[in-house]
Amino acid sequence: MSILDPRWPSLTALAARYRQGELDPAEVAEAHLARLAPGDVVRLVTAERARAQAAAASRRWRRGRLRGPLDGVPIVLKDLLDTAGDVTGAGSPALFGAPPAAADAPVAARLDAAGAVFLGKSTMTELAFSGLGLNPHTGTPGNAVDPARVPGGSSSGSAVAVARGLAVAAVGSDTGGSVRIPASFNGLVGLKTTDGAIPTDGAVPLSTTLDTLGPIARDAADAWALWRAMAALPVAPPAVAERRGRFWAPPTVWQEGLEAGVRARFGAALAALRAAGHEVVGEPFGELAELDGLYARYGSFAAHEAWALHEGLLERHGAAMDARVVDRIRAAAGRPASDYLRLGYARERLRRAAWARAAGFDALLAPTVRIAPPAIAPLERDDGAYVAANAQVLRNTTLGNLLGGPCATVPIGLDGDGMPVGLMIATAPGEDAAALAWASAVERLGLHPGD
Questions:
Q1: Active-site residue 300, yes or no?
Q2: Which of 228, 229, 257, 259 could link 233 by a cystine bridge, Cβ 3.0 to 4.6 Å?
Q3: What value does the mean pLDDT of the chain take?
Q4: Tens digit of pLDDT for each residue in 31-54?
Q5: Which of 58, 130, 155, 178 is catalytic?
Q6: 47-63 and 25-33 helices cross at what angle (nearest 10)?
Q7: Catalytic residue among 92, 122, 130, 154
Q8: How many domains in the chain?
């Protein structure tokens, strides 16, 4: 069955069918649970909780006491987020034997209050430290379009579950692209939320500076509904861009070294925006180049902070962990604390300067990922190929994290091999609604997979 099969209702379509009495949340939950088993997409199936949540949703729908568009909707949560009574594994054997969480993380509690049905905990790159999605412990879920290719990471299971129709929507996390990369690679919409806008309490940390939580969904309207619940915002119709936009698509860094198929789809998207009456400016953006050089100079936030957070974990369990993840964390071990401080100072200076320069634009535009999803097998065999591919997939999205604001990704078509390509839409901090509104505007251009 195609990932675009209309028989797989979107979140908003499912809610409408509940209201019309065509479907029952308990039956929908059972249909999803029947297709789920622990493996490379979900590490843990939480059937008992899902059935209880779905039964409660069914009672509310019958009585007309609706909690909103998430009520009775089956979702998966990335396995770094605490849910009461379940072990939070974060893709790591070092944590698989940990005690169950005593309580839901705040975001999980908010989604439960909104009526969502928790199908299970989705697989991920170990400790969320890679953009490829490989995991030698749980297995790597193949890309939903071509299973021989990477799913993108680190929220690999979240994206693949949605794209394969195993869940209606999913929660991921994004520190360097971990929502946007797998969403883009699987033809989905994802949102990296504004730094600090959604609490990360109860989530296994990678970088306390850059960690964010965000939705992965089939379209912008679904992402909107999930984001509102995650952010504890009242239910509201999706924001609509009522006017023509003014966008900045800088060639600096973001458009350098693109694969031909990515370049073609990105160019077509910009042309379609201009044809629809939007203004797209292509002037250089020097602050992006400076931001792009920070990690080579000082090390990354993730490495510095993961080393401080997980040094003891590596000492106790490092031999059983993914050696590539361990190496990335240990890369910060020999760096002086002054490098970490200078990284923070430089990032803040450049972030402020970048948004001051972008003040006259509605959003910044870039290809979400500079390359198509690479094949899994060569990366499993070759450490050098893995490191090179990981750097390629993370480059564009990481700059979005350093800018600190929300970044949406929306599908803009397929490359020459039939693989999805995403457009990244970055807006100023706090403008998450605008990022999703512009993503919806791009959807209306008709640049969907298969066009």
A1: no
A2: 228
A3: 96
A4: 999 999 999 999 999 999 999 999
A5: 178
A6: 160
A7: 154
A8: 1
